[in-house]
Structures are given as C-alpha cells and as structure tokens.
C-alpha cells in the first residue's frame, strides 16, 4: 500500500495534468487502504480475509462548470486519460454558481498536530485468530447462550491525500483495530441474538477479548423471553450504543447542504432553544486516537474545536464550499470526501456532555417506561423532524429495569425529543459520536 506522501504526490500529478488540459482549477483526493480480519465460529476458523485498495478522484472546473471522475488505475497513461476526460465532461455540464475550491487564504497551512491515528502494532493472522477465539469462547461460556454467530478480530490501515490547484497538498495515515462477538441465547421461537464490539485506533486501547465476549453473551441472554407492552406515552431511556443515532440526526439537520436545499426541520429554528439550557454538544477534531479525528477537512480547510449546541441552542450550520457560497456563510471545516463526486459534509468526534445524575437516579421516578437497547428501520424524516423507529429493550416499572420487550415502535418529533432530553453521568468515549444514557419523556410507544 502507498504511504501518505505518495498519495499526495499522485494527487498533485493529477491536478497538474488537468490544468495542462484546460482546467481553470482542480483538486484531487487519493485514498488507499489495507485490512485483515479473521472470523471464527463454534471454535473453528471460518474466514481469513485480506483486502487492499487504492483509488483517486479528480474534480475539475472550467469556468463555473465542473465534473468529477474516479479511477483505481494509477498508471501514468491512465491518469492522463482521466484528466482529459474530466475536462471534456466539465465543458458539457451546466454552470454551477456555488461550486469551487476553498479560497487560498482559508486553506490549512500550519504544522500538523500528531493525533496518534496510526498504531505501530501490526497483529499477525495468528494473533487475530486467538483474539477472535477468546472473544467467542467467553461469549459461549455465559449461561443461557445456545449457539454462536461467531467472533472476529481485524486490523486496518489507510492513507488520505488531497491536493488543490491553489496550493494545498497534505495527507495523513490512520488505522484501527476491531474485536467483536455475536451469539444466540434461548431455544426455538424464543431465540434471541446480540453482539458486542469495539473499534479503537490503538490495539492496546481495546477491552480484553473476555470482556467483549461476556458482554455479547449477557446481552443475548437478557433478551430471552421478550414480550410486547401496552401502547401509550411514556418516558423512553436510550442506552449510549443506540442513543448516538439521535445526535446523528441533529448533525444531518445542521448540514449546510440540507439547509441550502431547504430539507431540514431546523430551518427557522436557529435562535430557538431546542434543548434544555444545560445541554452542550461539542466537536473535538483534535482528540488523540479519536475515531473521527482530523486536522483538515475534505477541501483542505482547517478543522477547529466547536460548540455545536450550547445553552440549548445550535451554534450554526456545518458547511462546505458549495453550501457556504449558497448560504452566504463562512467555511466551518466540515467538508467530507467520499469516493467521487463533489464533497459533502461530515463532522469529526462529537460528544454530548454528561449530566449530573446516575442512570439509576435517571429512571428512579419512572412508573412505567422503556429502556431502549436496539433500534431498526429508517423512519426519520429530516424535513419535518418526524421520528418513528422499531425498538427493543426492557420495560421500566417503578424505577427498575424489568423484563425484555420487543416488536414495539417508538415515535415523536425530533424538536420535542431534543427539548425533553435529560442525560445521565455515564459518558464513555468509545465511538465517533458519544453520548451518555439519556431520557426523553412523553414519547409514543406502540406495542400490543
């Protein structure tokens, strides 16, 4: 696999080729990755997989017209053909009054911080197999587990390079390690499955395989004997593993492109107190070993620490060049680069600050409620803010988590949910979006 310096060099080469063929401006983004994983099931090796990939995308501008194209052919003649075709395509497209490169004076030009994104520890296939087996063994050892979907362990490395025709040329390397287990509990029609997993930048930061496996087994066993529950409005408590999705909907609605398309329920609510005044949501792009850490965005604009919600109010939209130009706003360092096409918007590490009460105190006064551990379905409308998801978890009776429940639906509107959100004090930084357990009163629960 190429390194980040080689990725940047190829981007610069492709940009120069595009300029030589008539592009007024251009940028190129290169990604390369290598991963290895080992899966086991019932104590036997099931799969060993290794993959490598390299791809580069080119975006060119001819006046106000633009095009994007992508290839995995890095041969010199292939890049030359790519650049020529991109310029030809751009000349045929309609004009776009908002697209373009980030201005030169807004590009990152400082010293790159060491975010510790790449672990020098490179586990062998034998080590990955041993970790996967240990995780599955620990899960199968939990009383009540009757079958296994397997255990897996993996490691990956990637590089990203970006070059623009107005002077930006940077790249970085990153990596991650993953460990998981998934098992089945119960018999016949009462079987339930659940899992546990962790992903970390450094292998040494992963929990032990026995901890991962035990968590998977205990989660599956707890779900056996699930029933439905009566339909009515009640407090709903979200565990962190599913609660971060609610924060993800907020980020999507704050996206500059969504605001520009008028497809966000937050339009017109910029000055409204959407949350309790004590709620704070932070963005931390420079967190060492963070799963979404970065120091520049997909257009070369520097990232910065930022309060997305403070005093219960949102702190503005998340922009890339196109949405900032359309909305007349400043760049915020949130451009996201996928495979090909124009940049989108993406955030770095996001944290909902914890509250001051324990989970036990958070649910202590709930006479009848729901503790959600699983969500499914795509019933979220970001234009209207309507929220409806299938759910499973546990019933709360008289302040205690009691029997498991499933085949239910929870519903509300995101603005109402935000206003009623109360966080507990159990925040752990494990994912790219991290939240503590939180409670939302007054949600509609549809069951039996």
Report what the structure shows.
Strands 3-2-1-4-5-6 form a 6-stranded antiparallel sheet. It starts with a helix and ends with a strand. The chain is built from 9 helices and 19 strands. It has 448 residues and is α+β, with helices and mostly antiparallel strands. Helix 1 crosses helix 2.
Q: Can you tell me the residue ranges where pLDDT is under 50 for at least 5 consecutive residues?
A: none
Instruction: Classify the helix fraction into a percent range.
Output: 10-25%
User: Largest sheet, if any?
Assistant: 6 strands, antiparallel
What gap, in angstroms, lies between the N and C termini? 54 Å
Give average pLDDT, whole number: 96
* H/E element sequence: HEEEHHEEEHEHHEEEHEEEHEEEHEEE
Overall number of strands: 19
In angstroms, what is the radius of gyration? 24 Å
The helix tally amounts to 9
Tell me the strand order in the biggest sheet.
Answer: 3-2-1-4-5-6
- 3D shape: globular
**Which structural class fits the helix and strand makeup?**
alpha+beta
Report the portion of residues in β strands. Answer: 35-45%
